[in-house]
Each structure stands twice: as structure tokens, then as C-alpha cells.
Amino acid sequence: MTRLTPDLIEGVPDDTLDLDSRLLKMCGKTVKQLALEGAGVYHDVDFSKMRVACVPITSGMGIIGGFSKSVDAIVRRLGMQSYVTAGTDVNGFQQAIRDGVDMVMMADDAMFVAYNVHAARSTNNSWGTAMGYAVALKNAAGGIEGKDVLVIGAGLVGTEAVQILKSWGANVSVTDIKTEKAKALEERFGVKALPDVEDALASHRYILNAAPAIFPGRLIQEGAVISTPGVPHYFDEEGRKKAKAIIHDPLEIGTAMMAVNSALFSMEVSK
Ligand code: PYL
Questions:
Q1: Phi and psi for 6 in degrees, rounded to 5?
Q2: Which string of b and e fits 105-130 if b means at least 16 CB within 10 Å?
Q3: Residue 111 carries which DSSP code?
Q4: Alpha-carbon dihedral angle through residues 112, 74, 66, 100, given to the nearest 10 degrees
Q5: Ligand 1 neighbours by CB, cut-off 6 Å
Q6: Of 174, 177, 175, nearest in space to 164 by CA
Q7: What is d(CA 49, CA 31) in angstroms, rounded to the nearest whole number?
């Protein structure tokens, strides 16, 4: 998973991306509605009683400036109560537990989890990002069953996305510059591995791009629907003109998906 940098997430706390209005235009849903749908819930849920602590983690490459503040803001936009602990690492985790929170959110260089204290269960960001962007793609495409869908990137997010899209009845192909990684998913999940990334992209209308790659507009189909959590994120003018929708944000959709899914572990909600 590509490591975020402060400049990529600086707009998240104040939602300068205005993500909901962009998603409503492309998918007809808000971030919260997409996250609820990813958790199998098709009605609104009041999360105002959910208390969340975001714990900064200093291990490995350390704190990313603005990361905990961004997670805190995303969770608040879902209607949950949230704060960033004064302490970091185990100290911060202990503070959260002593405060009696319902959920702890924290990330090291390899894993970002939403841990539900009552259910003693967590949801991670790889699944959350894959699910969130798959739900966005399904809505922007007006349904995905029976449609040809390409997943670019056979990493942690792509591997989850392949399974999710296949479970919805899409005809899933997967491609990766490391062809053996795509082949491994073909063997594991019965999807189709395509050896050439550029050919694969040029021959698909519905795409979930989970790779840290930038693609020239000449490869984008007219009317393409591209759900793309990958960072760095960039599409040239030709690509932006040809695509019907390009769904992207640096952190919010994946974080909202994992927070909603984990919160629901300990809530009685009709599905
Ligand atoms: C979770 C993000 C989504 C994309 N890449 C992932 C990433 O950058 N992970 C590293 C997160 C480190 C956070 C740091 C802190 O500030 O607590 N340990």
C-alpha cells in the first residue's frame, strides 16, 4: 500500500474536496451511504452514541502529519464522537481503553485498523478501501452483475476487490505489472489474469484501479467508469474528458467503510 504524505491529506479535515457532492453526482450516494451499503445496510444509521479514539502510531516510518486528525474528521462526518489521543502507541491505546471508548482506530506502516472494543473484532483498511470503492463503482455503473470489470493491481486492496466484485456476479479480470501476482489471483479466485496492463485498461469500461500508477488518457475508453483509490492519483486532460466518472479520494472512502463496518459489529441494526 502506498504510504500517504501530509500534502495528499491536508484537505481531508476540512473536506475541501467536498467529497459527498462529488460522489452524489457520480454514484448518487454520500460517503456514509456507500459505507452503509458496503456493510449490507440500505438505510441511515445514527452513530452518535459511538465513541471513537484515534491513536497516533510512531512505529516504522512514524507519524504522518495530519493522518490522525484526518481519520478523526472522517469519523465525525459519519456522526460518531471522536478524538485523537494525547498519547501515542500503547500509551494512547491505554488512554482510549481507560476512557471507555467503543472503537480504536490506528495505523502503522503495514496495517490500518478500526478495532471494536466490545466485539473484540477489527476491520482493516485494505478491505475497507476495496469494498468502499467497489460499492462506488457498482453505483456509478448502475449495477455491476454480468459486466466486465478490470481490477488493476493484485496487492492487498486489489486482492480484496477481486473477491468482492466476483461475489456480486461481475466478470472480473485482474492485471498487474508483476504478472505472476495476477496469475495467483486467477488460480485462487477463478478470475481472469490479463498479462498486459495497458491492453487490459484500454479494453475495459469498468475499472477499479488499486495500483500506484498513472495512466495516459489515450488508454481510457470513452465513457469509462474508474473507481481509483490508488495514490499517486492523476489523469491527464484526455482521460478526464473521456471518462464518465473518476472516483477518488486519498483516505476518506476506505476509512469510512472500515469505521462503519466495525461500529456495526456491536450495534443492533436491521439489514
Ligand atoms: C492507510 C493509508 C491509506 C494509503 N496508504 C496507507 C498509509 O499511508 N499507511 C501508513 C499510515 C501510517 C500512519 C502513522 C500515524 O500517523 O499514526 N503511523
A1: -50, -40
A2: bbbeeeebbbbbbeeeebbbbbbbbb
A3: -
A4: -70
A5: 1-4, 56-57, 63-64, 67-68, 107-109, 112, 125, 251
A6: 174
A7: 19
- Which ranges of the chain would DSSP assign to H, the alpha helix? 6-9, 19-27, 31-38, 67-77, 89-99, 125-140, 156-167, 179-189, 197-202, 237-242, 252-263
Q: Are 233 and 215 in contact (CB under 8 A)?
A: no
Cell numbers placing 8: 495528499
Return the H-helix or E-strand segment holding 206: strand 206-209
The three cell numbers locating residue 132: 468502499
Mean pLDDT by 10 residues, the chain (271 residues): 92 95 98 98 98 98 98 98 98 98 98 98 98 98 98 98 98 98 98 98 98 94 97 94 98 98 95 84
Task: For helices 31-38 and 252-263, give the axis angle rounded to 10 degrees.
Answer: 50
Alpha carbon distance 199, 179 (integer Å): 13
Return the pLDDT at 74: 98
Distances (CA, A) of 28 to 141, 173, 259: 11, 26, 21
Question: What is the distance in A from the centroid of ligand 1 to the CA of 66?
Answer: 10
Grid-cell match 465513541, residue found: 51
For the CA of 255, the nearest atom of ligand 1: 1
Confidence (pLDDT) at 88:
98
* 112: Cα within 13 Å, side-chain hemisphere: 27
Q: Which of 44, 262, 76, 221 is nearest to 34 (CA)?
A: 44
Phi, psi of 43 (to 5 degrees): -145, 165
* Cα 203 to ligand 1 centroid, rounded to whole Å: 33
* The predicted structure's pLDDT at residue 270: 86
